[in-house]
Structures are given as C-alpha cells and as structure tokens.
Amino acid sequence: xxxxxxxxxxxxxxxxxxxxxxxxxxxxxxxxxxxxxxxxxxxxxxxxxxxxxxxxxxxxxxxxxxxxxxxxxxxxxxxxxxxxxxxxxxxxxxxxxxxxxxxxxxxxxxxxxxxxxxxxxxxxxxxxxxxxxxxxxxxxxxxxxxxxxxxxxxxxxxxxxxxxxxxxxxxxxxxxxxxxxxxxxxxxxxxxxxxxxxxxxxxxxxxxxxxxxxxxxxxxxxxxxxxxxxxxxxxxxxxxxxxxxxxxxxxxxxxxxxxxxxxxx
Length: 265
What we know:
Elements: E1 14-20, E2 27-33, E3 38-39, E4 45-46, E5 51-54, H1 78-83, E6 87-89, H2 96-103, E7 119-121, H3 129-134, H4 140-150, H5 153-160, H6 183-191, E8 195-196, E9 211-212, E10 220-223, H7 232-244, E11 249-252, H8 259-264
Parallel strand pairs: 10-11
Antiparallel strand pairs: 1-2, 2-5, 3-4, 6-7, 8-9
Helix pairs in contact: 4-6
C-alpha cells in the first residue's frame, strides 16, 4: 500500500502538542521534547521540564493522526477561507492545459484521486493576507503564526522564574517584541510590507507560517525527481522528509514527464 511506504513515525522522546488560539478556534502544532534529568554533583537528580519547539513536520509525526495519502492532508484552512466570503468555487479547472491533462486517460493511474475544485477571488475582491492586513483585519492565519513564533515562551518564563534573562545586544534595526509576538504585531508587519504569510487559497492544507526580518529564520528545501527512475511514493516521501528536517517551504525543481500530476500529491 502507498501509505506503508511513507514515513510516519514520530520523533523519539517527544510528542506533538496543539496550542489553542484565543481569537479564533485554531490549534497550532508544536513539538514538546522530553529532557533527561540532570545528575547533581552531590548525588540525586534534578528533573527538567519539557521544551516546546517550532515544528514543521505536519501530521506525519502525530501518533493520533490518520494519514490517507490518497485524500491528502486535512484541509484545516478551508473554513477560514470560505468564512471570509470573498472567494468563489469554480466548476472545473479553468486552464486549457489542465483540461488537456485531465482528458488524457493514460494519466489516470498517476492522478491524485481526491482533487478539489479550484477557488478564485470574487470580482472586485482581494484575498491576500497583505490586503486583509492593510484593511486592519486580523485573520486566523495571523493568530496562528503569532502563536507558532512564540513557541510557548510564556510557559518557559513561568518555569524558569525570570532566569531566562539575556542581554539586549544590537538589533541592527530589527524590532522583534521583547515578550510575546501578538496577532496584531503580525498584522502590522505584513501591512508595512516587512513580512508575508505565503498561504494560497487553493492550498488550505498548508499550515500558516511567516517570513520576515522580525520573525524566526525560515528554511526552504529544494527537491526534484530522479531523471532515471521515480515514483509517486518516492516523491511524497521526499516532501515528508524535507518537512521532518525543518523545511518551512518546499520548492519542486523537477523536470520531465508527469510533473503536474506528481505535484498534486
């Protein structure tokens, strides 16, 4: 089975945790790592609390997630997009090339079975996070990335009782908040053009993340298929492993036959 060839094991000594939103009913995925106890010089041990970190691995490292490769990842942002009432669902793929590929029955075995009809902005509407930010609107995506960037820092502060102090250093013009990053700060940075949330309305399965000077460093992974031999299983597993190792974004640089069908997976 296809599912049996895709890596789905969780990381050792850690578990997936979900932090709820306060403005919207969202659940932000992170990884909680269990630390070993510290051995004291005079005997005994000191128990260390777990550490929560940023997690890009998606549901593939969640013990409770039910992965069905043929249906794709959960479309978490679907309701967020539709609730804004500024998109329409097209009756079919609108491009001539897309229709040509669909009409080719030789591609049926390669085709992603659980396809959805594409969406586009309603006439006169703009569906970018930049547009919402400049209208003063905080979106679920903005709160999601704010929670994600914070990595439960408020719990770390409570556990260390103020021992997390660090010298201010030189910001070189950066303006990252000293304490929590808020959804409003995210909105301000996007509106000012200093940050972006790359979330397409036709990929509601994507977890929101933010790229900008005043946020955590992000990693882009370039992947590509083999010119000699390749399969859907191998290409999906490449993407899974890229995410497991910390890729926030993935760029497919593949060339050759059936790239369009492969990318749908």
